[in-house]
Amino acid sequence: MARSHLHKFGGSSLADPDCYRRVAHILLTHGRPDDLIVVSAAGKTTNFLYKLLALREAGQLWTEELQVLMNYQQNLIEQLLGAEQARQARERLSTDRAQLTTLLQLAELSDYQCNEVVSFGERWSARLMAALLRESGVAASNIDARQLLVADEGAVPKIRDAASRQAVQKVLAEHPDERLVITGFICANPHGETLLLGRNGSDFSATLIASLADIDRVTIWTDVEGVFNADPNKIQDAKLLKTMSLAEADRLARLGSPVLHSRTLQPLFDTHVSLAVRSSYAPQTGFTLVTPQSDAASAPVVTNLDQVLSVTLQLEGDWQALHEALVNAGLLPLAHWQHSKFRHEVVFTAELRKQVQALLTSVASELQISDVHEHLGFGLVALVSSAASQYRRSFARLLSRDARPLYQDELSLVTLVPQGQVALLTQKVHRRCAGPRKRIGIIVLGVGNIGEAWLTLFEQAQKRLSRELEAQVELVGIVRSSEALVDDEGISPNDWQERMVKEGSPYQYEHLFERIETLTADELVALDISASSALTLQYPEFFSRGIHMVSANKLAGSGPLTFYRELKQMLSNRRLFWRYNASCGAGLPIQHALNDLHNSGDAVAAIGGIFSGTLCWLFEQYDGVKPFSELVLQAKGLGITEPDPRDDLSGRDMQRKLLILAREIGLDLELEDIQLSSLVPPQLVDVPLDEFLSRMHEMDDDMAQQFAAATEQGKALRYVAALDRSGDKLIAEVALQWVESSHPYANLTPGDNVFVIRSAFYQGNPLIIRGPGAGREVTAAAVQSDLVQICKDLLQD
To answer: What are phi and psi of 547, to 5 degrees?
Structure first.
């Protein structure tokens, strides 16, 4: 059976006896009997060994430092092992000391011998950890990686995959059902001479051996919990990432992540191996898993480098040829800008300066490179995500004039800024793009025709809306006349009816508010898509609980002036938003237009119009031949009127809409301040509906006379709302009018609304807004528009 797991522990995880015990406990509780373990040198052991070489090279006394190092190793042995194993370990350590002394006393040391000196740290760690595991009663052996990894020499040793794989598989076969503790950081050339794998060599050893051993999972145990979406030492609310793809991790490593290094990740490409990064100090906490591939877009990560090397150059040759030469030399650019036809800027980590200089010099003639300038005064800020393009606009808005335009590839967005701006820009990008996404919960109040149309619209728009707003917009409550469904986890718009049957419950407003109080959304927006006066009376309670409101219900906007003022004051005190464009004109932007005129410094003098699609249809169809009452019955049969046509014919609906618009332009009016001339005869106002329908013909004679008189003067008969404050006296009324045949009211598509606005800027040629003023889809769209605008207001910095 193939082995499934390799654990790697760094020097900080093995710094003292307690650390060793902690590691042994992790291996016994989180591992299996045949796990592989790769270890670094304990604590600062490698630094000590390099110091011995430096003292020897300088001709200075090194024996005292060697004694300090031996005492440290001796103490680990005494603290961790029982008598017999401690005796064996002391004997081995004594032999190692003699070998070290012999090497350090040589007149000259070869590179291989220097490497031999440095390799003792990992060898001691592997030997001691294997002994400690045996002390715990499990089978364990220590393995010198020079038996496993064969490499050709170079600036960085190049592993011979075939030979190394064969050696690894051979050792695994020789030690079945046994934990193998392997040295990191070291390998050997074909002659068995010691080579070092360089910076982060132990992590590289771990992933390399895992790939050669066909291991499923590598866990790098370190002193941090994993990869965060920003440096937690610099960003207070940085969050641990649960998962990310290997490609994202590699790009992040190249852009400065201190947790993962690109070289460590390379052996994992084209394998099935996943990589976990965990804390050896808190093994019970969460961790980051790097997977070969990821289907879902991962959370963005913000990273930075305080200093980078920016090289600007004149390139008359091919950029792709230069890029290929850089990559082949191991000098992969962090970012690249082409400022003009021949002028390029290429960015590298600062420590690559000499290698970049050498490479550019070597290809300068071939690629026609000239006028090369280096800059070290810049830092780099980057965002890494497989969905990086989604954050481009938000990132770009944060750039100062000193910043480079965003460089973008498939996985990242990168900019350069003066070094003094790096920390601040990193914080801003994290807050805007990678910080906790604001969660906006939507509660729908009323699911009749318009409410259902809105739910369909929201289902289609939800993902796009959340993406564009860079927030999590979720439906969390649906309330109708008899029952409510509230769920903090969210409600899908496509199965709410099934859930309402199973989970909905009767409610009183008091209990509904208690349930809403448990919702965890950062902001709540209620959509009143009802015609309920009882719900309108609850607006103060919604506002007192910090809930924003969108109203298609016109009763609040046209309620008593004291109530209206109370609502507006609550909004001002709490910085809440209440939008009600759908309450007048459905989807027509009448309130938007009035607000724009006000914001531009204009003064609205008059508003008039036909604000009822039903009454527009009736008077566009009425020709004086067919009785008006028959036309009303026809409209009722078509569903154009309310179930009780008196709700339309009374003019009360238009009166309320005119009041809403009057208040929008700053007039403190009550409903009674608008004179209303109803089309319903007084004797029919209060009779039962059936009786009204049977006696509706009683209105025909008066209507016919009005029509004939208007026609005789070449005018059209229309039912109109009018407000005019341009004279000495305010005129506000809803009534029949005779209008010129050329008037905007006289030539409408049946069912339209029309609004005519006169202002200081629009005197002789008024502003006219015309279109469908009713209908479930356009009204639902108006509700959605108001919702989106409130969300945008809430998300402004």
So the answer is: -100, 125
Cβ distance 725 to 605 under 8 Å?
yes
Rounded Cα gap, residues 257 and 278, in angstroms? 15
* Inter-residue contact 795 to 469 (CB < 8 Å): yes
* Widest CA span in the chain: 127
CA 86-87-93 angle, to 5 degrees, is 85
Coil, helix or strand at residue 698:
helix
Give the residue from 185, 63, 168, 48 showing the smallest Cα distance to 126: 185
Q: Please state, in angstroms and rounded to a whole number, the distance separating the CA atoms of residues 538 and 551.
A: 13
The bridge status of strand 243-245 relative to strand 301-315 is unpaired
Spell out the residues 6+ positions from residue 148 whose beta carbon is closer than 8 angstroms to its own.
164, 167, 168, 171, 182, 187, 209, 212
> Where on the phi/psi map is residue 607: left (φ > 0), alpha (ψ -120 to 50), or beta?
beta
Catalytic residue numbers read 657
Spatial neighbors of 169 by CB under 8 A, at least 6 apart, are 212, 213
* Amino acid 333: pLDDT: 95
Q: What is the pLDDT of residue 296?
A: 61
Non-local (6+) Cβ contacts of 668 within 8 A are 561, 565
Q: Tell me, what DSSP letter sits at residue 228?
A: B
Strands (DSSP E) along 164-212, which ranges? 179-183, 186-188, 194-196
CA-angle at 425, arms to 424 and 430, nearest 5°: 105
Q: pLDDT tens for residues 238-265?
A: 899 999 999 999 999 999 888 889 899 9
CA distances from 565 to 72, 533, 568, 584, 755 (A): 78, 17, 5, 19, 25
Instruction: Collapse the DSSP code of 764 into the 3-class scheme (helix H, G, I; strand E, B; otherwise coil) and give the result.
Output: coil
Res 794: pLDDT: 87
For residue 78, the 8-state DSSP code is H
Distance CA 671, CA 711 (A): 32
pLDDT digits (tens, 9 = 90+) for 190-216: 999 999 998 778 999 999 999 999 999
CB proximity list for 198: less than 8 A, separation 6 or greater: 156, 157, 204, 263
Sheet holding 675-676, edge to edge: 675-676, 731-740, 715-724, 604-610, 752-759, 767-772
DSSP string, 508-555: -HHHHHHHHHT---SEEEEEE-S--HHHHTTHHHHHHTTEEEEE---T
Residue 146 contacts residue 192 (beta carbons within 8 Å): yes
- Torsion of Cα atoms, 47 then 52 then 57 then 62, to 10°: 150
Distance of alpha carbon 427 from alpha carbon 431, whole angstroms: 6
3-state secondary structure (DSSP) of residue 565: helix
Q: How far apart are CA 580 and CA 559, in angstroms?
A: 13
| SS3 assignment for 426-483 | HHHHHHHHHCCCCEEEEEEECCCHHHHHHHHHHHHHHHHHHHHHCCEEEEEEEECCCC
Q: pLDDT digits over 574-612, tens only?
A: 889 999 998 998 888 898 899 889 889 999 999 999 999
Q: For the chain, what is the mean pLDDT?
A: 92
| Cα 777–chain centre separation | 30
User: Token pair of 372, please?
Assistant: 């090369």
The sign one gets for the Cα dihedral 115, 118, 120, 125 is negative
**Residue 436: CA count within 13 A, CB half-sphere:** 9
